[in-house]
Amino acid sequence: MELIEDISRPPLVYVKGIPLIKYFAEALGPLQNFTPWSDDLLISTYPKSGKQQRVPQCPIDLILASRSRLCIPFFPGTTWMSEMLDMIYQGGKVEKCLRAPIHVRVPFLEFGCPGVPSSLESLAETPAPRLLKTHLPLSLLPQSLLDQKTKMIYIARNAKDVAVSYYNFYNMAKVHPDPGTWDSFLENFMEGKVSYGSWYQHVKEWWELTHSHPLLYLFYEDMKENPKREIKKVLEFLGRSLPEETVDLIVHHTSFKKMKENPMTNYTTLPSAVMDHDVSPFVRKGRSGDWKNTFTVAQNERFDAHYAKMMRGCNLKFRCNL
Fold this sequence. Notes:
alpha/beta; 4-stranded parallel sheet; 14 helices; 8% strand; Sulfotransferase
């Protein structure tokens, strides 16, 4: 059997001052030649900014068996919106959304991994209209997406829940460096020394883009509070309409429980050699405000002071509890 290169715990690689997973950094060169199609739609988040799905253990040879179409979405922050959008595009027909795993239906733009097809190869096989996803900051996004005014949807989540979720993900996803202690990871998160850089910069620059680009900016907490309302915002942004009962079906089909059970959205074909589920399950709690179970009082006070400094003058408002 062909052996997969050891991908465990490589150091982050800096590109234009942004730290990235080594294999994603290596994929950025070819990505700069990416040509979007007129009806492409890009979904963007900072890592760990959305619903989390569990990845059960599976043998390493699955990655070899499925390598012709595999595109590992190491960060599931866009999964919820990806499934919502695919259901919208399929007119609410659940059976059509079972045609392939979500990471095949919605390719991850900057994906790269030894022995696995690149994102550009996956996109070449994706029929129009295409849904794409990314976690890239604007400085690393292919300029063609901005020049051609490709429609985009951004989902932002409060920084405290993102930090906790990201720490657990760093522990179990071996493409990241070792995260160290929670306290040291939190300091790195605050300073933007984690993969994809600063959360503060990411959410603010994508927010500013709404003033010059066709971009819908949504909040994870709003989606949790009232998913039907947010789906209707998406429909309006896309210039589409669906019957009320179809919107209700989408809300039901994309609930945390349904997506966790759905093999087309729960990543059950991905290898445990990449993600150690004994360390931390990919599905944790899927709710807002869980940061309180991890932050100490001192960490929370330090984080709040740093947050106030970094977000001074920005009118973005996040809810840390529902």
